[in-house]
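Note to self: the last two entries modelled the partners one at a time, which told us nothing about the interface. This time every component goes in together.
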Amino acid sequence: MSISSRFAVAIHILSLLDINKEGRNTSEFIAGSVNTNPVVIRRVIGLLGKAGLVHTSPGVGGASLARPPREINLLEVYRAVQNDPPGELFAAHDKPNPKCPVGQNIQGTLDTVFKRAESAMENELAKVTLDQIAFDLVRGDR
Amino acid sequence: MSISSRFAVAIHILSLLDINKEGRNTSEFIAGSVNTNPVVIRRVIGLLGKAGLVHTSPGVGGASLARPPREINLLEVYRAVQNDPPGELFAAHDKPNPKCPVGQNIQGTLDTVFKRAESAMENELAKVTLDQIAFDLVRGDR
DNA sequence: ACCACCTGTAACCATTGTAGTTACAATCGT
DNA sequence: ACGATTGTAACTACAATGGTTACAGGTGGT
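The predicted structure of the combined assembly is written out below.
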C-alpha cells in the first residue's frame, strides 16, 4: 500500500500556515483548501503539534508554525504523521522457519537492505524544506 | 502503512529457488520455510511468473528462476509484487480546492518531491541483486 | 458575564488492502 | 489411470484509513 495521504495533507496545511500567516487559519478554512472534513484537519494538526512543528491554541485559536519554514524539512513532517515507527517502511514476514537455512537468516539480510532503501528515501525528504515548497507554490501561481 | 510483506516473501521464495535449485520446490515446501500457507506462496509465484522472473509449470511442476540470480535485482521483484503502479508510493490527497493558491499548485509541487523520494528508494533496491542476497544468506549460515 | 466560535477528541461507519484458509478444476509425470 | 501439484476463486478476519456526527471545554469580543 501507499503512504497515507496524511503526509500530503500535512504539507498542504503547513504551506497554508506559512503563506497565509496573516489570516485566521481555522480548521474549517484549511479544510476548504484541502477539500476534506475539518476534523481530518484537526487530527493532522494534532499530530503536527505533538511533533512540535506547529503551535495550536484551543478555543478560537487557530494554528501557526512553531518554527521558521526554512527550519522545517519534510522528513520531520513525514515522521510526525506516520504512525509506523521508523525502520518499518517495508514489512517483514514473521517467523520464517528457523530450521531452513534461508528462513534462519533472511530476516537480518532483508533488514539491512530495507533500512538502506528507506534511508535513501528519507534523505530526499530531509533535503526539502517547507519554505522551498511554499516558494514553489507561489511561483506556480504566476 | 508499510509496504506489503509480499515483497519480503517474494525475496524469500526467489532465494530459496536459487539456493535449492536441485530440489523440488513445491509451494508446500516453500510455505514450510516461509511459514505460511501454500496458497499464499502460489499467489506470489504467480506474480513473479507474470513479471518473467520465474518459470512455473502447472501440474507437478514446481518453480525455477527464469534468469540467473545476478541478473535479477530487487527493484524488479518489488515491482512484480507491488500492485500500486510506480510513482504512487506516496498518496496524494485528491481534489484540493483550485480556488486557493495552495490548493491550485500543491499537486505538482508534491509530485516532484514524492517522485524524487520514491526514485531514491528504488535506486537502492535496484543495486541489490538476488545473488548478493543468496550469498549473504549462506554466509550467515556459517 | 454572556455568547458565538472554535478546538480537541471520542465514537461510528464504509471502504480498502492484506493474509490466511478451504475448495476444486486442470495439468503433469509416472 | 492415478497421485501429486498448480492456478484460482471464494470466503473470512483484521487492520488502517478517511469521512462524519457529536459534544465537552476553552477563548475572546462585546
